[in-house]
Design a protein that fits this description.
about 230 residues, 5-stranded parallel β-sheet, 9 helices, 12 strands, elongated
């Protein structure tokens, strides 16, 4: 798995020691890391970096974790992320409040790092199944990231690395319309600056590979928007 394929976790905490501890352990577990020290910085980081997971402390300076959670979930990049609220508040009413604000999960301090990483992986499996090594199936197409194999109607297909990642994005969210810009960010990475027409070229290659053994084209072009599967 390339660095761009590794899930990005944004850690939001105003305690330097906690930031360092979580950063070290999550990096060791195979994640890319970004950090923010307050709620306002977290909202900006989500917009700029598009993390897969946000570990969001409740008690933050400048903007509380709850308000940051609201603003993140209202943003285009934030809707694609899973937010795990981290708090010392253990009452049921606090958990409900955090989840009602838009958090996808809630973990109470003190917690073990192993538990936190398990929660991150569980949310990631829901969010990006191909990263978690699961097998995806859509109609007669089957994608296995562990063995790096794609089959259609039982026939093995030969895909390049970029086409494989493209197919993974489409199969993670059947029916979702992906803009060319969103596919560039998801497949090539946010730090890579290439023409959006490159997406069209690779989608064309993917279509050719998927239909090499027959069958209808499973990828549809949405005029003025982008591409979708199904």
């Amino acid at each position: 798995m390339s660095d761009n394929d590794r899930p990005l976790v944004l850690i939001v905490d105003d305690e330097p020691a906690q930031l360092a501890l979580l950063s070290y352990n999550l990096k060791a577990a195979g994640f890319r890391i970004a950090t923010a020290k307050d709620g306002e910085e977290a909202v900006l980081a989500v917009a700029e970096q598009g993390p897969d997971i946000v570990l969001l402390d409740w008690m933050l300076p400048r903007l509380s974790g709850l308000e940051a959670c609201r603003q993140i979930k209202a943003s285009p990049a934030g809707r694609e992320a899973a937010i795990i609220m981290v708090s010392a508040r253990s009452e049921e009413t606090d958990r409900v409040r955090g989840l009602d604000t838009g958090a996808d999960d809630y973990i109470v301090k003190p917690y073990s790092v192993a538990e936190l990483i398990a929660r991150v992986r569980a949310n990631l499996r829901r969010l990006r199944p191909t990263v978690a090594g699961q097998v995806l199936e859509h109609d007669d197409i089957r994608l296995d990231t562990d063995s790096y194999r794609v089959t259609r109607a039982g026939h093995s297909l030969h895909l390049g690395p970029t086409e494989f990642r493209l197919l993974g994005a489409f199969m993670e969210r059947p029916g979702k319309v992906w803009t060319r810009e969103a596919l560039l960010d998801r497949v090539w990475g946010r730090d890579i600056y290439i023409d959006t027409r490159t997406v069209d070229v690779h989608v064309g290659r993917l279509r050719k590979a998927l239909c090499a053994q027959g069958g209808d084209d499973p990828i549809r072009t949405v005029r003025g928007a982008g591409y979708a599967m199904g």
